[in-house]
Amino acid sequence: MDRRTAEDRGEPVVSIVIVHYRTPDLLANCLAQIGAAQVAIPCEVLIVDNAPLDDAAEKVARAHGARYLCSERNVGYGRAVNRGMEAARGRYYLILNPDVEIRPGSVEALAAYLDAHPSAGLCGPKLFSPDGSLQYSARTFYTLKIILLRRTPIGRLFPRARALREHLMQDWDHADVREVDWMLGGAIMVRREAVADVGGMDARFFLYFEDVDWCSRMHRRGWRVVYVPHAEMVHAHQRISAHGFLTRGQRMHISSALRFWEKWSAVLYLWKKKSTQLRALATVLSDVVWLSVAFLAAYFLRYALGLLFPSWSTAKPVLALGVYARFIAFADLVAVGTFYFLGLYRSAVWRDRWREFFQLVNGVAITSLVVMASTFLFTTRPLSRFTILLFFPFSLLLVTLAREALRRVVAEARERRLHLRRLAVFAPKASIARLEERFRRHGHFGYEPIYLTHDDEARHPREGAPDPVVRRTRLLEDERIAEVVVFAGASDAEFASRLLPALLATGIPVAYIPEEEGLLLEARRLGDFMGFGAIVLGGGPRRAGSWLKRAADGACAGLLLVLGFPLHLVQVIAIGRSAVVTLPLIGRLGRRIGLRAYRKQTRLLRCIPAMGSYPALVGVLGGEVSFVGLSPILPAQWEVLAREGRQAVLDAPVGLAAEYVGASELLGAWMRREPGTELSRDELELLVAHNRRYVKAWSLSEDLRILLSALRGPHGPCGRREVRPPGDAT
After folding, report:
1. Which residues have a Cβ under 8 Å from the Cβ of 719 and sit 6 or more positions away?
2. Angle at Cα 206 formed by Cα 444 and Cα 111, nearest 5°?
3. Number of Cβ within a 10 Å radius of residue 699
4. Which residues, in sequence order, are CB contacts of 239 under 8 Å at separation 6+?
């Protein structure tokens, strides 16, 4: 669609998109100036209002004939701009802040330049302050030095620094058309085809740096960013983030700067891809440094004690430090090797600081003993064993503190989400909201998902945009994607079939999830069928158990039924005929079972672990229930899982002790949830995942561990509450 065709059809050539946030007076003045400029080309005006407090902005928009789009919450500047561009119809998008006043002829000048220069993707006007002074809206890309000069008190010490002048391009008179690195996003015009190619503003920048990132992506795709001085506008730029010290605006600006660095830094990208290995390497280097420092501290303490007690120094003179040089290297090598074999460089130990500390005590003690024993092998000169004895507390203290400091650095990076590996999620548009909700419920999994739809554009590509497959594979490089997951449905199977080979050619790991993904959770293996790749789903249910387990269950249940009958009788007499209720549950292979349980328990009964599940022992004899087994599921929720193909049809019994959702609990502990109340969706998915893990990893030793852990767990039998059967309102 060229400009004249759009005019002939009565369509706007320029869509003016204004993002508004609680400044209706500025918005009214901005719209009034647009009207006063009497733009000579067809235009439309769209107002995107973020989290309005009242209808003031809507009234202003209606009064000036602008289209009004409202967001109930403040979604950030970039996301709001994208929403406005999605609703716009123009060939060019003019992005304006409400505090900008356009001068007559400025919109026409920007549009004319883009008409005459097809390689220009983005251009911006000359901006003036309200007092008539020039604003430096065209700039070079940021460096660390520039950020320090612009956003910290260091800039006040060097207000005329050369790097700052070059960044603001102050040595240029701003009178000529010039290609620049980037321009302030408060007033820029963008070509629709360029947006179709590089995408909209990155919504991950809530405020600040979204314009820098956008211009950077324009350059990477071959689009020029141009300063057009004969288009003039007035910008009441307040630079809120530049005033004060660590104000909210400054913190937001620094946060966006870190996000920009995280997005484009090759060093940080490498760190995220190899974070575990690099963290282990940093820990090793830190240990070597501080172990050496600890040895030096022990040596100088021994030297100081020799000065304080001359008689001791005479009897045992202190050797020169050079004598210990090779010995320190030997001690470091022994320590690092010992730490390695004790698992001190593994992620599991790193995440548990108390486990790490006790392992450090063991490691330093072993190192000290080995080093002490080795002194008897050095026959040329006797080394100070007292120095080696002092080495133990110094090394333990310094290495522990250094590891804690390193842990804090990593925690800070994680808090700022700088460690997350970028995950490209290709999915039909209808599935994006569900996937976003799932990520919100379950956390980030160590990934930062980037959602990319692939159905609408595949069927209706934008004019001037490259092939959708080509564009998406380009994004993998731009976004430094670590992994890709493709959700495919029947509506976009053809596009997915073209997309997958292109993704695989990039060398990035790709996970393909078909529409019937629930069935794949029961997959046994990948195989070959007549030359076709096939997923084998059948082959019989998995088994968790043995004749030995069944025999042990029966013998223990029979013994407990006999020994516990007197207490059971007391319980029935104390509570009445309704002391025992039947709970409907799903057992092995999806069969319905009725599990008997106490409605209430006396104080004495609650403190005897075996008696808490006494009524259920009858089910153990029948084989549907075991002392350790699957976590139970309610029939209603089983039907929900069945409709989604996510139910675990496993050949294993329900367990009186089941390790469920990360904590060991007796079945009675599960009963405390009052089975008439359904589990949350998160809990249900975790429960199903546990059941599958239990069957795959089943062993008698694992059953024993779960049983012992359940008996001593925090939800032991003494804490049980009243249990009501489903539907019981009494």
Report:
1. 606, 669, 672
2. 130
3. 10
4. none
Cα radius of gyration rounded to whole Å, the chain = 35
Of 250-254, 508-512, 563-567, give the lowest mean pLDDT range. 250-254
Residue type (1 letter), 98: P
- Burial of 514 per CB tally in 10 Å (0-12, 13-18, 19+): middle
Write the secondary structure of 156-167 as one string of H (helix), E (strand) and C (coil): HHCCCCHHHHHH
- What is the distance between the terminal CA atoms of the chain, rounded to a whole angstrom? 71
Nearest CA among 82, 6, 100 for reference residue 44: 6
Element (H, E) at 559: helix 547-575
Looking at the DSSP bridge assignments, the partners of residue 449 are 423
Listed in sequence order, the residues at least 6 apart from 522 whose beta carbon sits closer than 8 Å to its beta carbon are: 537, 649
H/E run at residue 493: helix 493-505
Which tens digits make up the pLDDT trace of 553-583? 888 888 888 888 888 787 777 777 667 777 7
Q: What are phi and psi of 426, to 5 degrees?
A: -90, 125
- The rounded distance, in Å, linking the Cα atoms of 429 and 552 is 54
Cβ partners under 8 Å of residue 383, min gap 6? 319, 323, 324, 327, 375
Beta-bridge mates of residue 227: 124, 178
Residue 186 near residue 238, CB atoms below 8 Å? no
Distance CA 115, CA 23 (A): 33
Beta-bridge partners for 586: 592
> In angstroms, what CA-CA distances link 283 with 295, 340, 341, 397?
18, 11, 15, 15
Contacts of 662 (CB under 8 A, 6+ apart): 686
| Of 354, 461, 446, 436, the residue nearest 403 (C-alpha) | 354
Closest to 91 (Cα-Cα) out of 54, 132, 70, 121? 121
As a whole number of angstroms, the distance between CA 282 and CA 366 comes to 22
* The one-letter amino acid at 256: S
Contact between 367 and 331 under an 8 Å Cβ cutoff? The reply is yes
- Report d(CA 215, CA 205) in Å as an integer: 14
Domains belonging to the chain, first-starting first, are 3-245 (3.90.550.10), 275-415 (no CATH), 421-514 (3.40.50.2300), 547-719 (no CATH)
Determine the Cα–Cα distance for residues 474 and 469; give it in Å rounded to an integer: 9
pLDDT (tens digit, 9 = 90+) per residue, 125-145?
Answer: 999 999 999 999 999 998 878
- For 593, phi then psi, to 5°, come to -130, 155
Closest listed residue to residue 77, CA positions, set 315, 321, 241, 314:
241
> How confident is residue 462, by pLDDT bands cut at 50, 70 and 90?
very low
Phi/psi of residue 659, each to 5°?
A: -80, 110
Is the Cβ–Cβ distance between 497 and 436 less than 8 Å? no
Residue type, 74: N
The structure's pTM equals: 0.56
Tokens describing residue 726: 């489903």
- 397-to-180, 348, 388, 402 alpha-carbon distances in Å: 54, 21, 15, 9
Encoded tokens for 360: 């450090």
Strand bridging mode 625-628 / 654-660: parallel
- CA–CA dist 538, 524 (Å, integer): 7
Token pair for 585: 């549950």
In terms of residues, how long is the chain? 730
